[in-house]
Amino acid sequence: MTKKICLLTLLSLAAAGIGCSTNQAVDANANAAQQTAQATTSPAPDNSEITTTTDAQGNRVETRTFRDNSRVSKVVVTTNKNGTRTTRVTSRSGEERVVDTTENVLEATGDKIADAAGFVADKSEDVAGEAKDKTVAGAKEVGDKAEDVKDKTVSTTKKVGEKTVEGAKKVGSETKKAVKKVIP
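^ that's the sequence the OP posted. Answer follows.
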């Protein structure tokens, strides 16, 4: 009986030793994967920020987060170790679309990215833009009409000035004749 207890004790200690060494190896692999997946963050154009991570398999994930774009909240570009890129764009409402574009979405404006993804702009912005365009066109037309009036005024003023000079010369010559008649 003592031999059986010793044998069972030895086997249980061996199993515990093997189990502990396996857990340490798994923990070491997990720590190595976490170390390679550290994120780096850098500022980007259009009031955004890019966070770049690389996982243990060599896949690179670049996430561009927009702070105040009305149409796009983030863009995620995943590049696998073979070099294949996948671009996903997320709208402010949470809708996500895969975009196939040759443009560098990590540097493009948010509106260009939203257009490429097919996210429609807010209609109130379109109405404001159209009203502004019509106002500018109307102001230019009024300016053109004012310039036409100015040209006509200048032309008329020149004619009046010329007639006044002619009249003054005529009056001057008539006065000269009258003076000659009175004083012989």
